[in-house]
Amino acid sequence: MDIVEGLLKGDRRALARAISLVENEDSRKRETLQQIYPHTGNAYIIGFTGSPGSGKSSLVDRIVGIMRGEGKKVGIIAVDPTSPFTGGAILGDRIRMQEHTEDKDVFIRSMGTRGSLGGLSRATRDVVQLMDAFGKDIIIIETVGVGQSEVDIVKNADTTIVVLTPAGGDSVQTIKAGIMEIADIFVINKADLPNADRTRTEVSVMLDLNEKSSWRPPIVQTVTLKNEGTDILWQEVQGHKGYLETEGLLSSLRLARAKRDIEDHIEHLIKSRVWDQVIGTNMFEKAIKQIHNKETDPFSAAQSILERISLDNKD
Amino acid sequence: MDIVEGLLKGDRRALARAISLVENEDSRKRETLQQIYPHTGNAYIIGFTGSPGSGKSSLVDRIVGIMRGEGKKVGIIAVDPTSPFTGGAILGDRIRMQEHTEDKDVFIRSMGTRGSLGGLSRATRDVVQLMDAFGKDIIIIETVGVGQSEVDIVKNADTTIVVLTPAGGDSVQTIKAGIMEIADIFVINKADLPNADRTRTEVSVMLDLNEKSSWRPPIVQTVTLKNEGTDILWQEVQGHKGYLETEGLLSSLRLARAKRDIEDHIEHLIKSRVWDQVIGTNMFEKAIKQIHNKETDPFSAAQSILERISLDNKD
Fold it and tell me: What is the rounded CA–CA span in Å between residue A191 and residue A228?
């Protein structure tokens, strides 16, 4: 299969085509992912998340510059769960990444919503695997926003960076339950704005209240435009990587991810078995009408449908 | 069963207890929901969503005042997908709803994250059913934020209102793909602020670009503090309700909801059957390790696990 072959040989067009297979749910997607799987597990995966306007993209740009200076090959997946656009066509991304678009060792791909959010998180994971097998040393998952969807997407990362700004009040309000827990490093970007120190203190206090693990997320102040603090951020990323490695946590993290992947595939496989036998059948249509007419309730209808289909598929 | 009996007789304490059963995943939850189901389908369900700070809660307060003036019995479910608090304990809600807390015909319940987001959306649906069977004429689902989780929660509503403010740029940026599609009515609240008209124009342009259905969401400007525009909003809600009814769409909407409910229950039932047989077993632990060691890939592991368990349960 030449896409896989090309990808493993480092052909950028093969990588681009493989990513398209994944995004388009092409019939060759599954086989491709199975074939490249033994070649994954070498890349280090870094997640960046933060509100729109936090300057996250410019920060990523700077960090990529540092990584490139060290000779690392970098893959970037820019995910916007609220955008219907996909396939690298987001103009803004192209412009902002100008600095690296000429660089053959930086591969950038934008992804927008395709169907469900679970789908987007899965697609992100699959694209990470493709870039990993392709030979990237570092893969950056960059996502806009601080909602549950971003949390799900960023769960694919080894080190997660949450980018805040000192902008009045809002910044720390966004560190809601889910985000607080996923951050391995906090960045206060635009730290030359007023209140940067206050924001730092607020984050610090929140960390005091939430101390659970042996890793306390460092807080790094950066000014992207002046390229201040980005080298410190890069050091902190390496510090976190070192921590994960020496504590054996990188391995546990990836075991947990393997577990989640199996669970995810099992659910997906079963769902299709179920829906193949249910959707569009008379049995199903009848049940919907009965519920609508209050002759039965949704739970009882579900139970009775499950009694009438066969889920075991041992052929 | 006296909770159900009490609830159907209009006992507020019984309703509160039934909601707690649902929230706590009590063993009596399923039975309760099955018993009240025939008594549902009478309430009209209105969803309010919008960013924090859009003045949504005060707006709901005002609208509830108008509904009460017309003698409608109202239930309010205030959902915060990012808050770990639940059970009506959110102080802010209690304070802001002061106007109606003395009113026996207004029932308010706050709900925060309990486990997964899918769980929260399901719990919202269940609480709607309880309030509906209890005899509420109108049920308001109010949710903070404009992410996917809010979209899922608000899908339980017949009419969905998206609340924006004229605040510089951000307001219209938040009308991302998902939100654009769920809005039946747009409100520009705090319309006495500068740029209210510009925001209106921007929303209008977006609507021009997205025209798909025969319903064009009206845009209502409100100033909650001065109680301006709220009566128009109420008229627009009734206009949308009338539209759904005359076009036969309310019925389709609810049929679609019945369909989603069955699907949801089927998935839930199957998942528990699967996980009962998989989680914690040697087979599963072995598969995780094999994936980790690249001896197999997650998809193949999932397939082989599915071949070894039995999902049919026809006892």
Answer: 9
SS3 state of residue B107: strand
Helix and strand numbers, DSSP H then E, in chain A: 15, 7
Of B33-42, B143-152, B289-298, least confident by mean pLDDT is: B143-152
**Rounded distance between C-alpha atoms, residue A241 and residue A245, angstroms:** 6
Mutate to test the interface with A, among B299, B303, B312, B313 (most CBs of A within 10 A): B299
pLDDT tens by residue, B220-268: 999 998 999 999 999 999 999 999 999 999 999 999 999 989 998 998 8
Q: What tens digit of pLDDT does each residue of B25-52 get?
A: 889 999 999 999 999 999 999 999 887 7
CA-closest candidate to residue A38, choices B290, B181, B124: B290
Report the pLDDT value the prediction gives residue A99, as an integer from 0 to 100. Answer: 64
* B255/A177 Cβ within 8 A: no
A299/B33 touch (CB, cutoff 8 Å), yes or no: yes
Residue B45: both structure tokens together: 């369900």
Distance between CA A254 and CA B288 in Å, rounded? 10
Predicted confidence at residue B79, as pLDDT, reads 85
Which contacts (CB < 8 Å, 24+ apart) does range B288-296 have? B288/A255, B288/A258, B288/A259, B288/A262, B289/A255, B291/A258, B291/A261, B291/A262, B292/A251, B292/A254, B292/A255, B292/A258, B294/A37, B294/A38, B294/A40, B294/A41
Q: What is the number of helices (H) and of strands (E) in chain B?
A: 15, 7
- Indicate the helix (H) or strand (E) that contains B170: helix B170-173
- Sorted by where each starts, the structural domains of chain A and their CATH numbers stand as 40-247 (3.40.50.300), 260-308 (no CATH)
The partner residues of A155 in beta bridges, in order of sequence, read none
At residue B256, what is the residue type? A
Inter-chain residue contact B255 with A82, CB threshold 8 Å:
no
Whole-model pTM?
0.75
Beta-sheet strand order (sheet of A106-112): A106-112, A74-80, A138-144, A44-50, A159-164, A185-188, A219-221
At A26, list the tokens: 């092409």
Q: What ipTM did this prediction achieve?
A: 0.81
Helix A249-278 × helix B282-292 angle, to 10°: 120
Interface residue B305 vs chain A (CB under 8 A) = yes
Q: What 3-state DSSP class applies to B275?
A: helix
Distance from CA of B102 to the nearest CA of A (A): 31
> Under an 8 A CB cutoff, do A266 and B38 touch?
no
> Going by DSSP bridges, is the β-strand pair A159-164/A185-188 parallel, antiparallel, or unpaired?
parallel
Q: Give pLDDT tens digits for A110-146.
A: 887 655 656 788 889 999 999 999 999 999 999 876 5
